[in-house]
From TrEMBL:
Protein name per UniProt: Esterase/lipase superfamily enzyme
InterPro entries for the chain: AB_hydrolase_fold, DUF900_hydrolase
Pfam family of the protein (one): DUF900
Signal peptide feature range: none
């Protein structure tokens, strides 16, 4: 088994799908009792007939074999070319088919293109896919966090084993990273907190190398504990991640509506950026992407994945390009307000040719 595409899901399954068989119906909008694992060699990925169900054992074995086939980077100066195993967590109001299409495009843009970042795995959870279903989706997101935490716990155990390898040839050959969109960021924050608790709240353990929060539907004061440890949700994310980058724009009307639905006016991280009244952990920063997205774009909330300049920015972030280097390259610039440090940057569109 040498698949190009990988999927983990807690959605209800089509009836009578056996291990090794291909599904004929779509994954459902209800939460299943157990996770299911799927692989595909080619698209279109929004057709279940493209996917073959696998056992957890076979899925894990095939993914490990692919990661172990990546080049071994022994020179730390070359860390930016190291391959990734990236988990993509989609957001609110995504049917399974729409989530699969977004995942397929993300793979084409970052993992199967010349950028060739490595392997991307879709985690798809049962967002109801209806505009009137915000509250049911949020409830599903909380329940789905338990299943996502199961995935992260397995990853945590595997990485600890790899870090203790004496044989250099058997050491880990891939970075782990996560891209979470919209309410998928909420699923992730809850899941990481469960994983942190499950592993006795270790300090400064890099389970995730790069975490990219795209239009995150979470409170923008999530990281207000700063460098202190208060065992909060933001604390769990900061402790388990080497670097967290939030991509946001004030033009996102969907997140404006989200803030009005709950929390009595608390702003969304993906619309307002980090709450600047607080210090934040040094490994957390945000980038205003307003200038990268077309002025006439109607679907701002999802336009990050449709905009080449944002995709190119994501590549640099995932490769671990330093904030100062992004400033030097002119990819981003520091905001004019003197109170803001390098944790608050604005993306700069490329010059037209």
């Amino acid at each position: 088994m040498n698949p190009k595409y990988w999927m983990i899901s807690n959605r209800s399954e089509p009836k009578r799908v056996r291990i090794g068989s291909r599904g004929n119906n779509l994954l459902g909008e209800k939460i299943a009792q157990d996770l299911s694992y799927w692989v595909a060699e080619k698209g279109p990925l929004d057709k279940m007939s493209a996917w073959q169900k696998a056992s957890y054992r076979d899925f894990k074995k095939a993914l490990m074999e692919q990661a172990n086939s990546f080049p071994l980077i022994s020179d730390l100066a070359d860390h930016d070319v190291q391959k990734h195993v990236t988990l993509f967590v989609h957001g609110y109001n995504n049917t399974w088919a729409s989530a699969a299409r977004r995942y397929e495009k993300l793979c084409a843009d970052l993992f199967l293109s010349k950028k060739n970042l490595g392997v991307c795995v879709l985690f798809t959870w049962p967002s109801n896919g209806r505009r009137t279903s915000y509250y049911p989706d949020r409830a599903d997101a909380r329940r789905s966090a338990i299943h996502l935490s199961e995935v992260l716990n397995n990853l945590y155990d595997y990485l600890l084993m790899k870090q203790n390898e004496v044989d250099e040839e058997r050491r880990c050959r891939a970075k782990t990273s996560i891209i979470a969109h919209s309410m998928g960021s909420y699923v992730l924050q809850e899941a990481l907190n469960l994983t942190w608790q499950h592993n006795n709240q270790p300090m400064l353990v890099s389970l995730i190398n790069q975490l990219v929060l795209v239009a995150a539907d979470v409170d923008n004061d999530l990281f207000k504990s700063g460098e202190s440890v208060d065992l909060s949700l933001g604390d769990a994310m900061a402790q388990l991640t080497y670097r967290i980058t939030s991509l946001y724009t004030g033009r996102d009307q969907i997140l404006g509506m989200s803030a009005g639905f709950k929390h009595f006016g608390k702003r969304r991280l993906g619309r307002s950026g980090i709450d600047r009244r607080y210090d934040v952990p040094d490994n957390v920063w945000d980038i205003d992407c307003s200038e990268l997205i077309a002025k006439n774009e109607k679907n701002i909330h999802s336009a990050y994945f449709e905009t080449e300049t944002v995709i190119n920015l994501m590549e640099k972030i995932l490769r671990g390009v330093d904030r100062h280097e992004l400033l030097r390259q002119g990819t981003v610039h520091r905001d004019n307000e003197p109170i803001l440090a390098i944790s608050h940057l604005t993306a700069i569109p490329p010059l037209s040719t």
